[in-house]
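Quarterly update from the structural biology core.
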Amino acid sequence: MKYKLSTLANGLRILTVPMPTLESATVTVWVGTGSRFESPEIEGISHFLEHMVFKGSKKRPSAKQIAEAIDAIGGEFNAATSKDWTNFYIRSRAAQLETTMDVLSDMVLNPTLDASDIEREKGVIIEEIAMYEDTPMQNIGNVFEQLIFDGNQLGQNIAGTAKSVNGITKQDFEDYRKKHYFAKNIVVSVAGGIEQKQVLALAQKYFGSLKSDIAQKQKLEMVSNTQTAPAVKLKTKANSEQGHFILGFRGFPRGHKDKYAEAVLSSILGGGMSSRMFTEIREKRGLAYAVSADSEHYEDTGYFGIYAGVVVSKIDEAIKAILDELYSLAAQKSEISDSELTKAKEYLKGHMALALENTKAVNSFFGMKELLQAKIETPEEVFAGINKVTKEDVYKVASILFKPEKLNLAIIGPYKDEGKFVKLLN
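Predicted structure, tokenized:
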């Protein structure tokens, strides 16, 4: 899959991925900011701003007018916020590319930020925060990151807190946008039945007036890596019929040289219904309905974790069984067969290939790499990197990651004794 990268005079990067057989196209605006760039006083502002962009713009002053403009071309639109990026996208027929660029640029670059809309949306976001709090399967990731990144902005909730959201003002939005929404901090990616020449002309027309830079890009507060003993964070949820937990270890930063071996390790442990964790924890022991392995990466750090939703009374057994598997791999006491290695690699490549049939996913693949990494890798390069991974590579990564003194356990459930779990980990 080929891509083309261009830069406008103001420093805005335009990434195009032509997919000539498609009738559709997705335009995504990527901004290099997220919740880790927020002070505690405005925690959640990146996510709040994501909401406000849909409430009205210079050309279309109301949410209804924006929605009508997208509905009129049969398109779909949405946005997302993470720890270190925010994106906004519209997916439509490729023939409607100019309308898509017009609406999306106006929303992102010229939001009205009406004071009454801001006050009204505070209630919506506070309800969203409450919804996640009431959904342990979704909230456990927040609890885990609060634990492993304690004291750093990476541990903040992307949606913020009720207190911080209530305190955000129109001036806060304007100050935040001046600090982060400038051309050199933005990538526009376009994938689908498009031609680069047309994309560049429209990008210049609708994004060319964006200011190039600010005096100084905000510096990140780096994460310290001084953990010397297992750590536990328990969030007691009375009357819960399940226990939810993530067992995790501080891991690699984005773009680490062992990233492909780590991906294969994750696939072996939790990639699909024949993975080790699914087979052992769900099928053999009947301890959990859901169990999976995953990793997350940031500029300066990352983590590798195992999630499980378990029978309340069997959480100790589940934790022990998972740790036995992880430590056995780290000590090379658990053999990886040739067929298991091959299956793990094909699982990764197959899922990635299926995802890349969607123009939104193609934008995510290329756009995020351009925004956050020094080099864009094509799918073919990723496949080649996965193919090169050996069993020895996987064992090495397991031995680096799975160290008992670096273990972190976050739990949501009807438990009251955090000390019991500390003893279990030790």
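The two ends are 48 Å apart (CA to CA).
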